Structure prediction request, 316 residues.
Amino acid sequence: MNKFFYALIFIIILGCKSTIEKSVKTIEITKDQVKSSLEYLALDELEGRSTGSKGIEKAAIYIENLFKENNIKPYFETYRDSFNVKDVIGYNVVGFIEGNDSDLKNEFVILGAHYDHIGRAKTVDGDSIANGANDDASGTVAVLEWAKYFSKTKNNKRSILFTLFSAEEMGLKGSGHLSERLKNANLDLYTMINFEMIGVPRAENEIMAYISGHDLSNMAKKLNTYTNTEIVGFLPQAKSYELFKRSDNFPFYNQFGIPAHAISTFDFTNFDYYHHVDDEADKMDFNHMTSFMNKMIPALEGMINTPEKEIKMNYE
Prediction:
């Protein structure tokens, strides 16, 4: 009788585990969600989201409301991390999901993107609003979708900060401020990934995305191992263009000396509208964006959940 009872309990536990695992695997980011968020952030109503504008205020409120609706807490007293650039007030928007492992929750991973853009650009056919759909509403939407995903699955042993930066277009001022603030607070930061312009696909013969500063750490290799496929590769021009230093990952690398990289699918051959008024939502490939976000999930989960810090700088 006892043997039968314990066998039955074992079967029930296995069944529950299988059901839980299946429910986690079936949570996918949908194209409709991606399209809806990006189309809002790239509206003319948001005036190109320049830092300090009424338009970026609307974008910030949109991000805050999404965090609230998905029970994603602010890391600070509010979601906003405010700073000044001369007479302009800017604010990063920071969401927080605490890790569920008693030890690893004290280690942090940052997933970031900049939600500001340049506001106005050269007028074309009467349009002067630079909506910044690819740059970087696309990366912003990715971070928001992953925030929603982890808020549902709770599949994060480490704690995660979802950071949307402003004043990137003014010289990485938002990420510079936040990285310094977190460093002064002695945050145990494991890794940081900034997602920059992921709205358009690369050529079919190219790896889906590339990582800046590829050889500085083993991040690309580990992310590909976690996904069991090559999703992140190397862009030969990245070094000559100094891409590693030109995105919001760089201040975190400077402050913490940890693997902090940018990942992008824009490679200077596949999109003609950088800082242009035609960087519009209708130029985005939503199938590509959704596919990229879903394919990145195992990579992010691997990075966030490994018992040891497997991603390291190559000089260590």
